[in-house]
Amino acid sequence: MGSSQVQGALWGTHPEDWATFAEPTTSALWDALIAGVGVSDGVTLLDMGCGAGGLATKAAQKGAKVTGIDAAETLIEIAKGKLPRGEFHVGDIENLPFENDTFDAVIACNSIQFAEDRVAAAKEAKRVLRPGGRFGIGMWCEPEKCEFAPIFKAVQEIMPPPPRSPEPSLSERANLLDVINRAGFNVLDEKEVDCLFHFGDDDQFWRGLRAAGMMVAAARTVGEEKLREALLSAARPHKDSDGGYRFVNWFRCVIAD
Asked: FRET partner for 159 with CA separation of 20 to 30 A, picked from 98, 128, 189, 244?
């Protein structure tokens, strides 16, 4: 089973929750990526791992002609509803269904880390990018720069050991740049962007997190109630007096050609 089939089944489980509570948390990163690749009127843009179409919609508002691809059919349906004039496909970012030199710009926001072969996915971005075009990649920064780190740690602690050693984390700058360079790109610019994750109450926090693919996989292993308890316990230090949760997480925005 290819990575798109695996990831599509995971990320497509709670599509409305993802679109409503989780995906918008990285809106500031979308802005940085859209600006970095030079989106303007008439620019053709591919959004690799477009999810429910949040970034694609923002790019279209700047004048881009947007194409999106994602493994989850249910998320693609939401994206189509948000942006009827866009072109959206269910597919694999490691095997893009587009001709060489098709797009003026390509963006991969928090998607390449889920590919079975990350370098192959980045090489596909290079293949479909026109000469002189720009590739923008957005990724979590190192755990010490993210207030979500205890959340991820809490999940790891209740999960059984993985059957094999995990791939090197792309939240480490050197690992991300290695993938970009091995795909044949030259880095033009990079910066770090802070994103405020805000959830109004326990329910929004749980529904936003449970919609992420890795949380769906965890829930299938340990059960939803155990996962929910672990997540809420780890989040408690970030709970406000009004019952909501606020986390500041930093993301790396890299622009390459």
From this structure: 244
